[in-house]
Design brief:
Number of helices: 0
Structural class: mainly beta
Low-confidence stretches: none
Strand content: over 45%
Distance between the termini: 40 Å
Radius of gyration: 13 Å
Mean pLDDT: 95
Order of helices and strands: EEEEEEEEEEE
Largest sheet: 7 strands, mixed
């Protein structure tokens, strides 16, 4: 069974930082790109970032470029999202998922329950 479990969310002031973690199990982690998307109340789901495994390519949404950094540790079957210079508009539930990027747009499958990130102004 594919499982993705997120952690690391919380409440932070604008300008602060958080590091999200995603622990994966139940599939050949090394073979897949893993990423993050977020969903804020009243807004559509937004892809945040993806990282490919063996070729090390990353993708970021324009809204987080220069502030967020995605990384992975294949030995631990984990993916991380370091979020710096957080803004109130980053407030959302963040989920990790298997991802694919085509024509500059990500698609996501098999996501976890998510972790809440709240940025206060």
């Amino acid at each position: 069974e594919v499982q993705l479990v997120e952690s690391g969310g919380g409440l932070v002031q604008a300008g602060g930082s958080l590091r999200l973690s995603c622990a994966a199990s139940g599939f050949a982690f090394d073979d897949y790109a893993i990423g993050w998307f977020r969903r804020a109340p009243g807004k559509e789901r937004e892809g945040v970032s993806c990282i490919y495994s063996k070729i090390g390519i990353t993708w970021y949404a324009d809204s987080v470029k220069g502030r967020f950094t995605i990384s992975r540790d294949n030995a631990k079957k984990s993916v991380y999202l370091q979020m710096n210079s957080l803004k109130p508009e980053d407030t959302a539930v963040y989920s990790c998922a298997v991802c694919t990027v085509a024509a500059g747009l990500p698609t996501f499958d098999y996501w976890g329950q998510g972790t809440q990130v709240t940025v206060s102004s």
